[in-house]
């Protein structure tokens, strides 16, 4: 499949690109501008400029010919204005551009409690509300959708073992394991048109996704 990754230069993004390339996909690594191409060099992907906050037509061009878009971009700055720009409006722009580019499937990396922000940590509520809004736009779009709500991200090594379920509460998961889940979604039809939480857990990634009810 041709897969475009938004936020490919980020910590989860780089793991995800590597995982997708290993699985034999043709990967376009979305970067905010030409100066960020270097951040995805050597990963085996083709860099494409795809800034969620600039020109929707540029996004459509970047997506055209893709079977799948996976959005793992996020604001670097937790300031609510930056979060609204990237995680809400930017993420919505990504969904709309994918519809215009006739992409079939769209996978969004979201956060635990984005489906119930009032229950999440007060310190990250602006992020949760922003993600709730953009997740809901994706769910109501014409795309085949998946929303993966990760627990607190860590840089611990991959375990390739996770728990996935509609709601898991608070927990943690490594960026490498999240990347493994996102790429495994392409092989598991049960993940289509579904949102779920993911934490580190007992089951191998493929088995965990296959057991989603
Ligand atoms: N931290 C947590 O505990 C946690 C928990 C659950 C979910 N999440 C979410 O998981 C995702 C990945 O997190 P991470 O820590 O791996 O991210 P990260 O390392 O901070 O990387 C973020 C990526 O987003 C890109 N980006 C920023 N603004 C953009 C824009 N306007 N257009 C396109 N790309 C843009 C960045 O590009 P540059 O490299 O050019 O800056 C970078 O590639 C984020 O959405 C985050 O909110 C985080």
Automatic annotation (TrEMBL):
SUPFAM superfamilies registered for this protein in UniProt: NAD(P)-binding Rossmann-fold domains
Source organism, top-level taxon: Bacteria
Domain annotation NAD(P)-binding: ranges: 7-189
Pfam hit, one: NAD_binding_10
Name this polypeptide is given: Putative NADH-flavin reductase
Taxon lineage: Bacteria, Bacillati, Actinomycetota, Actinomycetes, Pseudonocardiales
């Amino acid at each position: 499949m041709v897969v475009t990754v938004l936020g490919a230069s980020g910590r989860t993004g780089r793991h995800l690109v590597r995982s997708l390339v290993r699985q034999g996909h043709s990967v376009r690594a979305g970067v905010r501008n030409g100066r960020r191409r270097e951040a995805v060099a050597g990963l085996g992907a083709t860099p494409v400029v795809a800034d969620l906050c600039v020109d929707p037509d540029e996004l459509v061009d970047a997506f055209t010919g893709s079977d799948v878009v996976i959005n793992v971009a996020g604001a670097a700055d937790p300031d609510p204005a930056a979060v609204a720009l990237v995680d809400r409006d930017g993420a919505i722009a990504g969904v709309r551009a994918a519809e215009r580019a006739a992409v079939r499937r769209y996978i969004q990396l979201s956060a635990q409690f984005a489906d119930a922000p009032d229950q999440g940590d007060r310190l990250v509520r602006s992020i949760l509300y922003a993600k709730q809004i953009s997740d809901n736009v994706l769910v109501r779009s014409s795309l085949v959708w998946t929303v993966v709500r990760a627990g607190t991200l860590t840089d611990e090594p991959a375990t390739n073992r996770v728990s996935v379920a509609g709601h898991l509460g608070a927990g943690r998961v490594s960026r490498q394991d999240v990347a493994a889940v996102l790429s495994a979604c392409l092989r598991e039809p049960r993940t289509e048109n579904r949102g779920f939480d993911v934490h580190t857990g007992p089951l191998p990634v493929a088995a965990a996704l296959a057991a989603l009810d």
